[in-house]
Amino acid sequence: xxxxxxxxxxxxRTRGYQPxxxxxxxxxxxxVGAAYWQPAQALPLVTGLLVVFSFLxxxxxxxxxxxxxxxxxxxxxxxxxxxLGSYAALIFHIPIVGKSLTIRPENSTGILxxxxxxxVAHDVGSYFVGRYAGKTPLAPTISPHxxxxxxxxxxxxxxxxxxxxxxxxxxxxxxxxxxxxVVVCIAAPLGDLCESMIKRDxxxxxxxxxxxxxxxxxxxxxxxxxxxxxxxxxxxxxxVY
Length: 241
What we know:
The protein starts with a helix and ends with a helix. The chain is flat. By secondary structure, the chain is mostly helical. It has a two-stranded antiparallel sheet. The chain has helices spanning about 1-15, 20-35, 40-60, 65-85, 85-90, 105-135, 150-165, 175-200, 215-240; strands at about 135-140, 145. It has nine helices and two strands, in the order ααααααββααα.
């Protein structure tokens, strides 16, 4: 998550923004640990400190630039990558309600693993179907290569993965796996398109070169940044409330 945030901050810098990168990366790394160890107290603390120190960063002149715009992009990158990414740790704090409901550590791992597998299934299905059968642009002004056919292919593969594979991963069952597929089929393409929108605005093809042939870390987890928070709240509804 921190590496993905670093890629985004670097992308912002290429377009003339001057974010408080050091503060943003420190907050991103901290919020993931905070979400795992003390989410109720530490999450608002980390976020609040970043906002305050971002103001101070420009107030004392550590970076001389447009403070309003640069504070905004500093906080935006943190919220987009760090805060949303911290939900992967928050999954391990899903509350236990009632005597018959037990979310054991291995079940929390199963919730996170299922979100990752379903997202991978959607990405793979969308890529191959879109590449070989895609004809109708999905969002031509944002991402010309994404197609409705690819979206349908990703939806089909995600449904198949959830109903055939993920249903066997605790605590998922057939019904809950179906709803996970629905959530992933909505959140994953939105996450992908939102990152494409940012890349188009920044005029970059890939956010980084960490993974040769695949772009950067953020290019690989863009869908997960939307899927994992959605899965967290789905798990609360299905397994707690």
